[in-house]
């Protein structure tokens, strides 16, 4: 029994001595988080929702907003996501100065709330939308779906004008910016 007690004590003393009594100090450089999922370079896989937006000339304002809100990494993760992506023209239709005001650092939280209002968790293809159904958004609110007799889908009145699949979800291009009430 005594031999079993001495063995762990011996290992403990050996571990303390091998450290040389020197404490190591970590720097903020060592403990700071890395650049995130968006920094992963992968030219072999299908593009994720952010990469699709980056490749679209019609979504440069959306991409700038995603960057200003520090929301790029969240949408490059696995998902799956359904993203309602307003076009540049949709952002241009907002009152003058709205976008410029939202991308200011002090408005980052408000901008992120608006962007999260454009995201559903899960993949909703056009055929999955049901008339008069509410769907929960990433910010905890909900959007209202309307499907017309001819199959046109609108989200809070914004018309889906195109649908693009992505590796981590689906993008529905819309003709208006969705603003939470």
UniProtKB/TrEMBL annotation:
Return the Pfam families for the record.
Answer: Fasciclin
Tell me where in this chain the FAS1 domain is found. 46-178
Asked if the keyword Thylakoid belongs to this entry, the reply reads no
UniProt cross-references to Gene3D superfamilies, sorted A to Z: FAS1 domain (2.30.180.10)
User: Quick one: signal sequence residues?
Assistant: 1-23
Note the SMART domains from the entry. FAS1
Alphabetized UniProt keyword annotations = Signal
Give the domain of life.
Bacteria
Q: What is the name attached to this protein's record?
A: Fasciclin domain-containing protein
């Amino acid at each position: 029994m005594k031999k079993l007690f001495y063995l762990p004590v011996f290992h403990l003393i050996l571990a303390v001595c091998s450290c040389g009594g020197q404490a190591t100090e970590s720097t903020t450089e060592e403990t700071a988080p890395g650049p995130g999922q968006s920094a992963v370079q992968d030219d072999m896989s299908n593009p994720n929702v952010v990469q699709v937006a980056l490749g679209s000339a019609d979504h440069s304002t959306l991409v700038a907003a995603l960057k200003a809100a520090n929301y790029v990494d969240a949408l490059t993760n696995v998902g799956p996501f359904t993203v309602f992506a307003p076009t540049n023209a949709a952002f241009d239709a907002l009152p003058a100065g709205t976008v410029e005001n939202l991308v200011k650092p002090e408005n980052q939280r408000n901008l992120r709330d608006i962007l999260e209002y454009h995201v559903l968790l899960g993949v909703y293809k056009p055929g999955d939308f049901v008339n008069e159904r509410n769907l929960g958004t990433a910010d905890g609110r909900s959007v209202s779906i309307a499907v017309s007799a001819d199959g046109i889908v609108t989200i809070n009145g914004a018309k889906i004008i195109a649908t693009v699949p992505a590796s981590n979800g689906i993008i529905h291009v819309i003709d208006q910016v969705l603003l939470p009430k």
